[in-house]
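Form 7-S
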Amino acid sequence: MIPPYLIDFSLDELPHEETDVIIIGAGIAGLFAAIKASRKHRVTIITKKSLFDSNTRYAQGGIAAVISDDDSPAYHRQDTLVAGAGLCSPEAVNVLVHEGPDGVKELMKMGTEFDFENGELALTKEGAHSHRRILHAHGDATGFEIVRALAEKVKNIPNITVWDDHFAIDLIIKDCECLGAIVQRPDSERVYITGKATILCTGGTGQLYRYTTNPEVATGDGIAMAYRAGAYIQDMEFNQFHPTALSYPGAPRFLISEAVRGEGAVLRNIKGERFMERYHHQQELAPRDIVARAIVSEMEATKSTFVYLDITHESEEMVKHRFPTIYETCLQYGLDLTSDWIPVSPAAHYMMGGVKTDLNGETNIGRLFACGETSSTGVHGANRLASNSLSEAIVFGRRIVERIHQLSQPTNRVKGLSVQSGRHDIPMQAVVERRLKLQKIMVRYAGLRRDAEGMIKGLDELKRQLGFFQSRLTRREEYEFANLLTCALLVTESAYWRQESRGAHYREDFSDRDDGHWRKHTLIHRERGITEERINDV
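Output:
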């Protein structure tokens, strides 16, 4: 069993820091919540690198919200429910589509500069959206622009303290309430920080896989911390693979935004043939899981490691104006988006599952909240609708802060808590090797396509690594591997349990969707194991 703590410690021997709101992570969820909370509370943001290192920074496509007169929350709701393949929480989706527009307006007040055309906000369309409702910034640099604006504001708020290069290791729980966390400073000193509330905003789990669009910081830290602390983890089998990541020798798996297809790009196999019409009536704008599996099928049929994304039929001026970041990045590798077909293949992109929360972002542990990709609010169901993630972060970030305003000061105080389990040292090189092996296991046995035989093998290989938790961990790389191993087990166990195919979860041995038996959430608890929760229709 995975232990409740990664390290041995004695709280009485650790330096103690106090604040009101602890925010672990610094993407759009963490920054937005910090700004909102700072109006009434002292806030400490803990980030293991810097304010600019998060998944948000790399979000190209945009943020989904109902802005135009020909759109409506009802349309946005229906699109989200369809993409979620029957597993969305209707209540959570209602919150998102009705409160999202106000959240976007707040981002603009905080300094985010979205693109305008003819004096109005520029809107584009992405896969599975029925209307143009995607706001973007600087063409394809939406995430970077949001982080820029929010980070600048954060730096000028006296009530917010930022701890860069700090690693949150473990949460401290007393009587089913979160009192704070043990954090390691850049000089390796550890500190115990307490607060009125703790918000997990650490992003997703992209580094579970060898090929991912996520930055290196996406190691599932918040999900793993919450699991060890006794929080429910929901729907971890639903890991979205983005269909179109750059697949070219010497280049990183750079995301080629879905907005490129939204603006008319088509997919071709290595023979130059368009193929999506054989897989879905929406063709290139079908839900991401369908497009990703279609690409893999074409790659297998043509014995290739990629397919092509072709937008050469659009004007050079439009392509350069709308997708400057993608254009310039491809150009670095000798690929011209305006005249070349771009080689692409699927890569791990977004975790729909995460720490289960209610409509106020609160977990089953009092004073512990989760927001953004770390959380599972029920908005995304089995397959996230494109560009709903940034909307979710601001909508539920605001709700979390409103809930925190209602909390009284904690009365619990942990005294004398000590964990001494006789952990031993481990060579650093072993961690590097273990991480690569874990990624290969996940690609092979718990990737885009799964079956029972493979997942049993994967679980067996992952469980052989459980002895790592008895090691004396002192470095960020070691904590990250422990968190990745935790999340890998959660993903694979959840995927093995769900004997159907739905959304981003596809099993070759159970290829059909089964609403009669499987229209329910997967819940995992450290002590109670796997349970389930059925969907309530509203």
